[in-house]
Amino acid sequence: IVIAFRMLPEVVWAMPRLGTFNLHASLLPQYRGAAPINWAIINGESKTGVTTFLLNHEIDKGAILGQVEMPIQPEDNVGTLYGRLMTVGADLVVQTVERIAAGEITPVVQPDEDTSLRPAPKIFKNDCLIDWTQSGKRIIDFIRGLSPYPAAWTRLLREEQEANSAKIFEAHFEAGGPEAPCGTIDTDNRKYLRIRCADGWIDVLSLQLSGKKRMAAQELLLGFRDANSYVCR
């Protein structure tokens, strides 16, 4: 049984008489790859799950042994969803072992590649940069899908020069509001810090400036009095 592993040589995974199976955090064949939980949230999915499947020569393409679905709640991020999937995944592993031992499983071959399948490739720092020209829902899903790790981030520019960067962990979307260029920061320097996107404002609740600790926006504003002089890119 393997979970979150680097690719093994065939001589290892072919050794057990009944095969080797993996637990993957998606409903295969959707979201094959290294970051299935992240991408499911980033793409705005309403459900995901866990899958056990037999290893073969291709990544996440072996015959399916078992699956359990799980809804993605609007308030979920990677941390909360991972915690729930971990629990049901452990149960599914035990069930899969018991059904294999009892001879009750008929592996189901995964369908061939088609255009409806969404991948889940490894995520790098540049993939986490927020595009403020996108819709509010898209940005919120993006932040949730990268929180708490590796975290969505933005550049903070001042007079067209990059002055700092910030990771954003929690936020919510307010549709409409006063018009402004995307990336504009608006704050009362006390209670709220929001950033303009394509169709409204992203109200930032929790963030981390480069070199600082993570904190609530209200806590940050106690010592960051000139936030209005920055823009996000």
| Average pLDDT taken over every residue | 95
Please bin the fraction of helical residues. 10-25%
Shape: elongated
SS field, number of helical segments: 5
Instruction: Kindly provide the radius of gyration, computed on alpha-carbon positions and rounded to a whole number of angstroms.
Output: 21 Å
- Runs in which pLDDT lies below 50 for 5 or more consecutive residues are none
Estimated share of beta-strand residues = 25-35%
Order of helices and strands: EHEHEEHHEEEEEEHE
* Number of extended strands: 11
Largest sheet: 7 strands, antiparallel
Distance between the termini: 44 Å
Structural class given helices, strands, pairing? Answer: alpha+beta
Notes on the protein architecture:
This protein is 21% helix and 28% strand. The chain has 233 residues and is of the alpha+beta class. The strands form 2 sheets. Strands 5, 6, 7, 8, 9, 10 and 11 form a 7-stranded antiparallel β-sheet that branches. It has a 4-stranded mixed β-sheet with strand order 1-2-3-4. A hairpin with a 2-residue loop joins strand 5 (152-158) and strand 6 (161-175).
List the helices and strands and how they pair.
Layout: E1 2-3, H1 10-13, E2 21-24, H2 36-42, E3 47-54, E4 64-71, H3 78-101, H4 136-144, E5 152-158, E6 161-175, E7 185-187, E8 193-197, E9 200-209, E10 215-216, H5 217-221, E11 231-232
Parallel strand pairs: 1-2
Antiparallel strand pairs: 2-3, 3-4, 5-6, 5-11, 6-9, 7-8, 8-9, 9-10
